[in-house]
Every structure is written in C-alpha cells, then in structure tokens.
C-alpha cells in the first residue's frame, strides 16, 4: 500500500500481537497512522500471557519507519478498556480509529460446551468490542469524528459446527456495530464490520492427507492475514466517510458486501392466525423461503483463486 490514507491519525488495534491483528497494525502504520498495539500475549484458547507478541509487532512497525506503542490490558474488562484508550491518548495525544480484533476460541459441540467456554469467548469478543468502543466513544464524540472497524465472522453471519459461543459473539458484534453507527452518525462517527478470511492458527487443523486435500490446503494457505488489511485501512480512513453500518468480507482477492437481516416473505390472514391455521396455510406458504442449515464452507464453497 503506497497511499497514506491515515496520515496523522492514531489507531488502536486490539489483539495486534499476531495473525490478522498484526497485519492490520502494520498496514495502518504504513498508511500513516500511529498505532497502539494492544495484546495480552495469550494462546488461542486464552492461556498464558506475554508482551513479546506486541513487541514483535512494534518492531515491524518501527522497521517500516512507523510509530507505535504497546498496551497489554485485557479488552474483556471495563477498566482494562479504559486503560487501553488512555494509553493511546497518553502516547499520541489523540485517537481516531479503533479496530476491535482481539479474540480467542473455545470450540465445543453445543451440548458439551461449558459455562466457562461460553463466558470466556463472549467476554473477549463481544464484551471486549463494547468496552473498547465505549471507552473511545466520548473522545470521538467530543472531536466530532472517529471510525470503528470490528472483526465479525462468517461463523456468526452464516453458521458453523462447534462454535455456539464464537458464532453468537460474532453475530452480536454486527448488531453492536449497527447500533454504534445509528447512535453516533450525528457526531461523524462510523462503524463497520469485516468478516476476515485467513489461514492462521484458527484454521490450520484442516486435514491435508490425500492429494486432493493437500491441493486444497495449498490454495487456502494463499489467504494470508495481510489480505484483510487493505479493507480495514480503507474503512478506517476518511476515504470511507460515506460508508457506515455495513458488513464486508475479505477473502484472498475477493471483497464481499454481506446482507443484513430483512423480511424475506410474508403471509396475511384477515381473521388472524391459530396454530392450526399456521400449520395448514401459513407455514407451507413460507416454507419455500426457509434458510437452510448452511455452514460458512457451504456458502463459500469455492476455493480462492
């Protein structure tokens, strides 16, 4: 990326110690932004903790001539989110962009999912996105500008096996983003979502045993994390000033505008409905428009080219 769309801006990127978050932070710095790198350095499941991943991201930014700072507070705590925003203000004196990217996975089939599995994922993804956005909102409102970019997932937009916690959180983020867009548009604050596709530690369990599987994995591995960065950099910039409340997906060299829930079909009864009338007439009329029990791989059934 050669254009510096975010020259002079200050951005927070949560979960920026690796993967997609690291690529977003580096790309934002290349676009001219000063970046607060937030990462607590835990495993994919949320265990451990180290500043090393954030330090590595900072090193990459500095190697490219950019400016950055590090924060290791947890997005899943209200006070932690306040400290994240305060760190950006202390380091750079302002705040223009928030990228809510931090996340963990605790996959389990629904009937085997524990309360801790549920709460841990909801706390990081959904509560974390709210806490950090809410901490930044007063600053955005006061300066009459700001941009939020939230990471959602097709696991929430479409569905997937064994991810009730993750899917619920990611679809909740879409509703949160739309609410922010509606409530804060009067202050010139925008909020959009990206469903990223990338080969990462979240996807490297896909089997690659047969020649066909190996060939497919080779294609999927081309969906490297940095493929998501241009869209995030654009949405964070003033070039996207007219883009608000939308949901996009980035998949290798493809960009998608995703649909949002709207009525598909309706039926009417002059005398109202009884359960029997619904069974005999209402539901048969609606059945042809039912949504299938699709998973994300069923909808995105072609490999990237």
TrEMBL record:
Organism: Stutzerimonas chloritidismutans (Pseudomonas chloritidismutans)
Residue ranges occupied by any Ketoreductase domain in the UniProt entry: 9-205
UniProt cross-references to InterPro entries, sorted A to Z: KR_dom, NAD(P)-bd_dom_sf, Peroxisomal_Beta-Oxidation, Sc_DH/Rdtase_CS, SDR_fam
Similarity field: Belongs to the short-chain dehydrogenases/reductases (SDR) family.
PROSITE patterns named in the record: ADH_SHORT
Name of this protein: SDR family NAD(P)-dependent oxidoreductase
SUPFAM superfamilies: NAD(P)-binding Rossmann-fold domains
